[in-house]
Input
Amino acid sequence: YVYSRPPPWSDTLPTIFVITPTYTRPVQKAELTRLANTFLHVQNLHWVVVEDSPRRTNLVSNLLEKAGLNFTHLNVETPKSLKVGLSWIPSHTPRGTLQRNLGLHWLRNSFSNTPPPEGVVYFADDDNTYSLELFEEMRYTRRVSVWPVAFVGGLRYESPKVSPSGKVVGWKTVFDPNRPFAIDMAGFAISIKLILEKPQASFKLEGVKGGYQETSLLKDLVTMDGLEPKAANCTKVLVWHTRTERPTLVNEGKHGFTDPRVEV
Amino acid sequence: PSGGAKGRAPPPLPTIYAITPTYSRPVQKAELTRLANTFRQVARLHWIVVEDAAARSDLVSRFVAGAGLPCTHLHVPTPRRYKRPGLPRATEQRNAGLAWLRQRHQHLPPPQPGVLFFADDDNTYSLELFHEMRTTRKVSVWPVGLVGGRRYERPVVENGKVVGWYTGWRADRPFAIDMAGFAVSLQVILSHPKAVFKRRGSQPGMQESDFLKQITTVEELEPKANNCTKVLVWHTRTEKVNLANEPKYRLDTVSIEV
Output
């Protein structure tokens, strides 16, 4: 076993493109570190890290260089307000949207002139927890695959409802189960082929009701009965929507106490 | 292993023992999963998982069986009278880890190679930390991120020796350091068989200091992480999950582990 390095790239295994939006805050480096430690196990994984930032930061650049993973480092800043005509209105773009769309855009650009590899795209927020098994479940997605996600919608887990014949027929959620796709961002993967086939499909930027972000993308890609249920017909939880507490930095005071040159 | 003049293999890497107290709550499996994902990237790491429980749980037993690295699964329940806010936590579990190590090595001749550290299940560890701690001769120390109300706390080092503590809380403690900020060589634990985490007479926040007092001096400490100027471990904490929508009645038809 080779430690601290990803498994060698294989020409026959489908690639998993993981798109992770991220933003600067005290726990960022910790989150990206433990994510990298997980991704190092996964063969043929390409990590697309998109910073919500006007510039690529040294913190993220250095982390990615040292991690040993295949990666692409992008950035786009979410505007606090949007110019509409002559006025500025506050932007209600949900967090991560512009970054995920940039990831899709990069993917589409990368394979505009070359044949794309077999593989999938997965949106992995930087504070969730992923089992290694999850990546093998999603690897052979034909169009769009789905599975349960823990700790969303006020439940231990939300899950697609799967018929005895293995088709998705609904959603086991308490929060708005009648959404076209009542599923969390961490609960689906899309084949690269489909992403390239439908170049207009992306996350809607504005006017998206709470819980409808995922629908805004998926509705242009697939219908419910075209979904592929994974994780033993959606009976196993392989990903958890964990959230990290904001650390109390009370002792930093107004002007900061610790040496800002020490990276945290 | 390389040949060398006499064809002898180099000594094997000292084993790192990670003692992790853990307790049942919704995020437990997630925490153990991402910890395992980190630990499995470290050569010769032996994970000692100690449940705060009267018996081994099915969840942790199944988890340990499939964890993908050498694991020892222990359990000891915290007595009810110690489960109050403000009292130190995981004392019995860490001591159980120490007891297991001592028992396992009691008949073996010194010096026994190996290093142990206390890895709480919600912290975050970089792979570099394990390189740093593996060369511990007695007790090594390093900075910890996001603790003590600060971006980081750290030992203050001058001329390669610890001379003080840069901390947000009670810097007057003999060892003003977090549980995640030190490692101890196995031999030191074996040669101090009575050194344990204390309940009696231990004030809150003094656990680490009272423990280290029994086995070392500030003078003896080995500073790691570039003379304690790099943060390689973070005291992250996970939010309590919102289960407001879990039904009291009409439960699901299947029982799914989370």
The first strand of chain A starts at residue 15 and ends at 22. The domain at 15-252 of chain A is CATH 3.90.550.10 (Spore Coat Polysaccharide Biosynthesis Protein SpsA; Chain A).
